[in-house]
Amino acid sequence: MSLKPDSPVISLPKDQYAHKGAPTEWWWHTGSLLTECGRKFGFEINATGTPPYGFTQIAIIDVERQCHYQKVNVVAALPSGWAESDITKPWYVNLGGSIEKQDDGAISMQAIDNNPLNMDVKATFVDRTTSTPCKLNLQLYQEGPPLLVWGTGCFEVNPEGTTPLTKNNYYYSLTRLKASGLLTIGAEKLAVTGMTWMDHEYGFFSNKDGTPVIWVLQDMQLSNGVHLSNYTNIGVKPMENVAMGSNVTVLWPDGRTIFVKSSTTPLGSPLISEKRLEYYLQFRVEINSPQLTASFVVTSLMPNQLFVDDGADVYEGVASCEGLFDNDFVSGTAWLEQSLG
Question: For residue 179, is it within any domain?
Fold first, then answer.
């Protein structure tokens, strides 16, 4: 991989729209939400297109009751107009069926007041295990600058590509989305608020030989207003107490960004899935560079946060973090992802 030197690569709000010709594109909402009395939930709403097919992933994690409701919905034929690419038209993403009909695995994202960085996001699904009907209805308003992954928002990953979209991976995050709305779990309806996170990734994202991409990622929203996205070297599976090489993008509240090397160590015994994959519930992330010294422990808030379908499983879930940032104690919300093939 080689870092693209061009700057700026990402232009918002233009690049919030879909990109015709992208081999892969997704809008991926995650984060922590609280009720007025402090009851905590995690959630995920992911719409992904990988022509000629697509899929949605939706989850609600009830931290207090340790319940995980989830659905993976494969869309066998990706609709041609599933996401708006014309920047002169209102932005939207619709995948997995009809929200109005409460289809199982449907997602809708619409711009609020013609601003695609402010979003009305809805999802409906039936939990795969318990058959509990669930809904999410969230209004999201971005505050502050985006996090440009790698510092520029672009990595060259496929030198053989014939267009920028088949050669590069583009990736930015809206990490200061002021969220409010409603979660519905069965007959229970809960008003929630929080600060959530959206990843928009598009371009080339796969191994050239067609094998699954293996990665481990931790996103963190710290109490000092700094946000981080840390990922381990692609293709390396975690092992207990064995440090892995990793990289982290750090975003300060004023928009200052650095991209530096880090070290990520899985801690404790793993969760072993039915497919015999080992998912870790805690990681130590360490940064030791001239620009920043920091160390965090990221801990899952519920052991089993697996997305499971008939083909694979993947760990994606709500977490917390705490540690030292330039010798000052910090804590915050976090998100864990582990895709191990």
Answer: yes
Q: 14-60: per-residue pLDDT in tens? A: 999 999 999 999 999 999 999 999 999 999 999 999 999 999 999 99
| Whole-number Å distance between alpha carbons of 4 and 52 | 28
Residue 225 and residue 250 in contact, taking contact as beta carbons nearer than 8 Å = no
- Domain C-terminal end among 157, 178, 206: 206
What is the reported pTM?
0.95
- Cβ proximity of 219 and 202 under 8 Å: no
Residues with Cβ within 8 Å of 294's Cβ and at least 6 positions away in sequence, in order, are 285, 286, 287, 323, 324, 325, 326
Q: Are residues 170 and 36 in the same domain?
A: yes
What is the spatial distance between Cα 219 and Cα 71, in angstroms, rounded to a whole number?
Answer: 22
Same domain, yes or no: 26 and 160:
yes
pLDDT tens, position by position, 99-132: 999 999 999 999 999 999 999 999 999 999 999 9
Q: Which residues, listed in sequence order, are joined to residue 156 by a DSSP beta bridge?
A: 2, 168
Distance CA 155, CA 52 (A): 24
Alpha-carbon distance of 67 to 310, in angstroms, equals: 21
How far apart, in whole angstroms, are the C-alpha atoms of residue 26 and residue 135? Answer: 20
For residues 52 and 120, membership in a common domain is answered with yes
Cβ-contact 191, 35 below 8 angstroms? yes
Residues 223 and 195 in one domain: no
